[in-house]
Amino acid sequence: MPGSKSHETPLKIPGKHDGIDMHDGYRGYETLARKSGNGQAWCWSHMIRDAEELIEYNREEGPYILRTLKAAYDRAKKLLDVPVESITEEDVDSLDSAFRQIDVPYGSKKCAGFVRTLMKRKRNDLFRFFIDRSVEPTNNRAERAIRPIVTYRKVSGGSRSDRGQMTLQGYIRFLNRREKGENSHSRLIQDSFKRLNSYQK
Questions:
Q1: Which residue did the predictor score with more confidence, 189 or 62?
Q2: Is residue 20 within 8 Å of residue 132, measured between CB atoms?
């Protein structure tokens, strides 16, 4: 696992690749977009959760931002029923206009900073899931898939040492094989213990 959250880290983990990069609001992904040239897709679940946190900073401006984002997102999801070949530039402009209603003056520095960051994002990256139907609006499915691994790493201290890294890799291998339906559970557990014992020697 990477030991840094620098802007170069997103470039190192996936390596060179083509396609669309789906991610949360971590600013390091701006470096990824600039240097890779790949299309970007911002996770709407993260955007909305981040907006919910603004309510504790300002009871009027926070809810306004949240309502506006949800309205734009709901509008985009409803239009997913329309075949992509029938989508017009006016449809995309309409979504973008609904989204940009958050671009108003704010008294809260936190709210103003949040909106300023969103305004820098490209329209096609914000509504990538609407334009390209192979892209999901959120990265929730991917996060659910890695949650067991992340939980195990946190409670076991895995990846803090060479031994921990190998133990974590063994656990990941176990999960992957189980998901694919390979062998019985007892066989998988026995094999995993053999691997763990070999790491400890």
A1: 62
A2: yes
Residue with tokens 């992957």: 176
Strands 20-23 and 39-42: parallel
> pLDDT class for 148, splitting at 50, 70, 90?
confident
Mean pLDDT score, 153-160: 63
Structure tokens at 40: 């970007």
Question: What residues form DSSP beta bridges with 39?
Answer: 20
Phi/psi at 42 (nearest 5 deg)?
Answer: -85, 135
The residue count of the chain comes to: 201
Task: Give the tokens for residue 69.
Answer: 């984002």
Q: Which residue has the tokens 């691994």?
A: 149
User: pLDDT confidence of 180, banded at 50, 70, 90?
Assistant: low
pTM: 0.69
Q: What's the CA angle centered on 80, arms 77 and 85, to 5 degrees?
A: 150
Closest Cα partner for 51 from 96, 84, 18, 99? 99
C-beta of residue 95 within 8 angstroms of C-beta of residue 130? yes
Indicate the residue type of 95.
L
Helix (H, G, I), strand (E, B) or coil at 5: coil
Computed on alpha carbons and rounded to an integer, the radius of gyration of the chain in Å comes to: 21
